[in-house]
Design goal:
heterodimer; A: mainly alpha; MetI-like fold; 17 helices; B: alpha/beta; D-Maltodextrin-Binding Protein, domain 2; 5-stranded mixed beta sheet; 4-stranded mixed beta sheet; 21 helices; 16 strands; globular
Chain lengths: 306, 448
């Protein structure tokens, strides 16, 4: 809509007919793109909203003739303790692995690498990005192998005389959180590295001439200047982390019990193991809403900044 | 993103297929067959590749189009039923889990085959239990069984020798099984005496190879076909939970961490049994699929190291042994444009020769009497006779669409028992409450 509105303002003084033709000329090339977006993006979301109000299923009577059931799926969801637990786990997982882990870790890495020797940057960057380019499935299996009972981590602990543990069993949420931090930090690092290279050295020098400590320079000069990058980064990694499925599915399957069953895993179980597509769609809508809430919080927090 | 995008994809596919509904470009000259092809499982693909030229030669003017779906069972089923929602994409013939016959018949995805079967001489060769597996609650038959699997005990003869147990072990009661496990525990430290699946980690294996193999040996069942009700709680159910508690709380089974690992069933077949770290495994007939040359964990010595024994009933009550079965059917789609050609394809694919071909390729247990008598069926797998004989006592799971949810609750209940979070009795009562919620209070009965 923005793209369509802008040119119109610049041509207000032209005669109406010509203006119309001109606008049509600008809009026309966009039509295929809008069409595709509507078909493959808006359409499915609308269908998902519709499905969440039906009893549509993969098999059984609901497969051939789904009925509108009003708010039944949502009522069922909000009275289901498994859903409440799953929502809570999702929020903890997002805050732990995205907002804190990936975001802070990525910023720290970017700051540490800023201004270092080219070779150091290449080596460290290469290793960190290596974790990121691995397919999620491979990363999941690696972490499963690393943390399992006879895995590398326990072998290392035993070698230095410590007791190993069943990490995936005793602390599944921590395990998947760490794995997600390991995998996703590279993205934040890349975003912040790019942002930091745009911070003018003169400002930092001036601040340090004025006697600002390293921390004060970071707090009052660097961070305000990279605010936009931070906002983009937080939104992106939050939405990505909200939807993490493969990593958790491979490492713990949502278990033991439901101790690491975040919303995507819960949704998978309801939609594809129990065949309640309608209920799964309702969960998807709630997942969308959770993402929207996080985004709003970020937008507000960033607007107030400095 | 994965799952959300999967849902979105679902939506896209449904939207796309729905918009194509009017077209109906599917013609009656092309017969489409959809089946699963995944990992080690390429038997169906080989079968249909083999019969494609034969079918096209026997039926001039017809084309056979193969649609192999490369996906695990859950995803295969999702894809198949999405295809079935539109006449344009619905396959004429499909590889269908026996388990979904009722709900897919209810969804009107399947075509009843009763009239066709009357004039098919081969039908008399199929064993009754398998015939029943293709029959829905409405009394119609919706598919021809492509073979089955059975369940029982695998045991390591080398460990048995060390523990002073017989090489030809045939337990008669649950206590015989526990006694052997105890003897192994005391004489051969360092091995897991007995594995019985439990908990949510291994999913359906926990319900079917684990809990139900116990429950169906007590005289009680999960579902009563006469009263058409789910049965919970029951005396047998309590006994089955008690058995699990005994195994896991007295160190006769794997550790909780092992049992609840989502990869535990792969580890059992791939590592614990081949490496001699597990003495007795309550498991399935298909395990050698991983051990044969070319399998995921080739282990040529498996047939000399491992023995097989039927899982006994609780106190040795008749018929003395218990087995559960799953299996697949060839079904004709309700929306096919050419039912007679689709039926011809099913007949061809499931005749004696092709059934045998499929059983061997897919490590299936035969459900055709004439194939069992064929020496080619038994060669190559010394345990095939044993697993095939279990067909005479085997039972199928209650094939209703609430079963997956009930099974999930069963897994949660068994997990509570083996981790000690609940006593067997309270786990059973919790489970019964969940079943009432899922199936409806009037669809559940208690039995003591």
């Amino acid at each position: 809509m923005v793209a369509v509105g802008l040119p119109e303002r610049t041509v207000t003084r032209r005669p109406p007919a010509r203006r119309g033709r001109r606008a049509a000329g600008r809009v026309l090339p966009l039509v295929p793109a809008f069409g595709l977006l509507a078909l493959f993006f808006v359409g499915p979301i609308l269908w998902c909203v519709y499905a969440s109000f039906t009893d549509i299923s993969l098999t059984g009577a609901g497969a051939s003739s789904p009925h509108l059931v009003g708010l039944r799926n949502y009522r069922q969801m909000f009275s289901d303790p498994a859903f409440a637990k799953s929502l809570w786990l999702t929020v903890v997982f997002v805050i732990g692995s995205a907002v804190i882990g990936q975001n802070v870790g990525g910023l720290a890495l970017a700051l540490l690498m800023n201004g270092r020797h080219r070779i150091v940057r290449a080596v460290v960057g290469g290793i960190v990005v290596g974790a990121w380019v691995l397919p999620e499935l491979v990363a999941g299996f690696m972490w499963y192998a690393f943390l399992s009972d006879h895995g590398t981590f326990n072998a290392i602990l035993r070698a230095v005389g410590l007791h190993g543990g069943s990490w995936l069993y005793s602390s599944p949420l921590a395990a998947v959180t760490i794995a997600n931090v390991w995998r996703g930090t590279a993205f934040s690092m890349l975003v912040y590295s790019a942002a930091l290279s745009n911070v003018p050295d003169e400002l930092l020098e001036a601040a340090s001439v004025d006697g600002a400590s390293g921390w004060a320079r970071l707090r009052h000069v660097t961070l305000p200047l990279i605010r936009r990058a931070m906002l983009t980064n937080l939104m992106t990694i939050t939405l990505q982390t909200l939807a993490v499925f493969t990593l958790i599915f491979v490492m713990t399957g949502g278990g033991p019990g439901t101790k690491s069953q975040t919303l995507p895993i819960f949704m998978y179980q309801e939609a594809f193991k129990f065949y309640h597509l309608g209920y799964g769609a309702a969960l998807a809508i709630v997942l969308l809403a959770v993402g929207a809430v996080f985004s709003l919080v970020y937008l507000r927090a960033m607007r107030k900044e400095v | 993103m994965r799952r959300k995008s999967a849902l979105v994809m679902t939506a896209v596919m449904v939207a796309a297929t729905a918009s194509a509904c009017g077209g109906g470009s599917s013609d009656s000259k092309t017969i489409k067959v959809a089946y699963q092809k995944f990992g080690n499982f390429i038997g169906a693909d080989e079968l249909f590749k083999k019969i494609k030229p034969v079918f096209e030669q026997q039926n001039p003017g017809l084309k056979l189009k193969l649609i192999p779906i490369e996906a695990d069972e859950n995803s295969y089923y999702t894809k198949l039923n999405l295809m079935r929602r539109s006449p344009k994409t619905a396959p004429d013939v499909a590889y269908e889990d026996t388990f979904f016959v009722n709900s897919d018949a209810e969804a009107r995805f399947l075509r009843p085959l009763d009239d066709d079967l009357k004039s098919w001489p081969d039908w008399s060769q199929f064993v009754d239990a398998a015939k029943a597996a293709g029959q829905a609650a409405d009394g119609h038959t919706y598919g021809i069984p492509m073979g089955t699997d059975t369940r029982g005990l695998w045991y390591n003869k080398q460990i048995f020798a060390k523990a002073g147990l017989p090489q030809n072990w045939q337990p008669k009661t649950w206590n015989d099984v526990l006694a052997a496990a105890r003897q192994i525990k005391s004489k051969v430290p360092g091995v897991i005496p007995l594995n019985v699946y439990a908990g949510k980690g291994v999913g359906e294996a926990s319900s079917m190879q684990g809990f139900e193999m116990l429950l169906y040996g007590t005289g009680d069942k999960l579902y009563d076909d006469q009263t058409k009700k789910w049965v919970a709680p029951s005396r047998g159910m309590g006994a089955a939970f008690d058995f699990l508690k005994t195994v896991y709380s007295s160190g006769l089974g794997p550790t909780q961490q092992q049992a609840l690992d989502p990869h535990w069933s792969d580890n059992v077949a791939g590592q614990e049994l081949p490496k001699g770290k597990l003495a007795i495994a309550l498991d399935g007939s298909w395990l050698p699929q991983a051990w044969i040359p070319g399998g995921a964990n080739a282990w040529p010595q498996w047939s000399s190291v491992l023995g097989t024994a039927a899982m006994p009933t609780q106190n040795g009550q008749a018929p003395g042994k218990v087995s559960l079965s799953g299996g697949w059917l060839l079904s004709v789609g309700a929306r096919t444009k050419n039912p007679s050609a689709a039926w011809k394809l099913v007949q061809l694919a499931m005749n004696k020769e092709n059934s045998l071909f499929f059983y061997v390729k897919a490590t299936q247990v035969s459900v055709r009497k004439d194939v069992v008598a064929d020496p080619k069926y038994l060669e190559g797998n010394p345990t095939q006779r044993f697993w095939t004989d279990l067909v005479s006592v085997t039972q199928y799971r209650p094939a209703y669409n609430v079963y997956p949810q009930i099974s999930n609750q069963l897994q949660a209940a068994s997990e509570a028992v083996v981790t000690g979070q609940s006593s067997p009795r309270s786990a059973m009562n919790d489970f019964a409450g969940q079943v009432k919620q899922i199936a409806g209070p009037d669809k559940v009965e208690a039995r003591s």
